[in-house]
Fold:
Amino acid sequence: MNSRRRVPKPLAITAGVVAATLGLAGCASASGAEQAGAGDQLSIVAATSVYGQIAGEIAGDAASVTSIIDSSVNDPHSYEASARDRLAVSRADVVIMNGGGYDAFMGPLLADAESQERTVLDVSEISGLLPADEHDHADDEHADEHSDEHAAESDGHDHIEGFNEHLWYDFDTMRHLAEAIEAELTERSPGHAAEFSANAAAFDAELGALEARTGAIADAFAETPVAITEPVPLYLLEAAGLHNETPAAFSEAIEEGDDVAPRALQEMLAIIETPVALLAYNAQTASPQTELVREAALAASVPVVDFAETLPDGSSYISWMDDNVSALEAALAA
Structure:
C-alpha cells in the first residue's frame, strides 16, 4: 500500500476530507456514505468527533468532514467499523486517527481501503510523545510506502505501555495537529491557503488562552495532590501543575477494564481520605470500584471533577476544554 505520509518536525502529516456539517462552533458529523466524495470539496475523515471538529474549524467551507465516532455514547475502544465507514475512508483525501492503540478500528479500515493519494495524520506520531521504539516507525525512510500497514499494526492492540493515548487533553499536541491539517489542506487546495491560515491562527489563539489559564493554576497550586480513576485527563492535570497520587495499579486496572486488586483499592481509598484536592473521574468507564472511590471522595468533601473521552454533543473542542479548565479552577478554589 502506498498511502502518502510525511513527518515534518515531530509531526506526522496525513490528509483527507469527508463531508460533515459544521454545527455549534464546530461540526456535526454526517455519515461517511452520504458525505464522502460530495462535490469537489476535499474530504476529511476523522476517527472521532474531537479531531473532526478541529479539522472542520481549520478547513472551513473548503472541505467536508466526517467523524466515524460522532456521538458521546460511542466507545472508540470497542467500536466496530461499518461498511459505511469503509466507504468514507476509501473516498477520503485526508484521514485523522488518534493512533497509539486508542482507535484500533482505524487500522483495518485503512488496510481495506488502499489509496495512493490519501494522507493519514496519526496524532500519536504528531505528538512526539510515543515511546522511542514506537515512534521509530514514523521516522522510517520507507514510511511513504508502508504507512497504511503501520497504521494497522500499531493499532492492533489496546494500549502501548507507558503511553497515555488521550492526546486531546494535551494542548501542544492539538496545536501541532492544527498545523499539520493546515499544511496538508494548503498543499491540496492552495487557493484557500489564506482561509486555512486564518482559521489555524484563530484556533491557536484559543489554545493559547487555555494554556495561560492552566499556567495560572500551576502557579497557584503547583504539586497539589489529586487523584484520578484513569489517565484520561492526565495531560491537562500535569499542565496545571497538579500531582497525581493514584496508585498505578488502580488506574491501570480501570483503564484496561480489569478488576482492581483489593490492596490497590484500599490504597486508593486511603489516598482519597488524605485528602487530595480533587478526584478526576471518567464516568464513561465507571465500575463498582470507581463508584466506591467516588462515594469516598464525596464523603471526605473532596470535589469530584468529571472528564470524558469523547466530545460532548453540541460542543466544540475549545468550548469543551474551556469547561474542563473551569471545572478544575472551581474545584481547586473550593
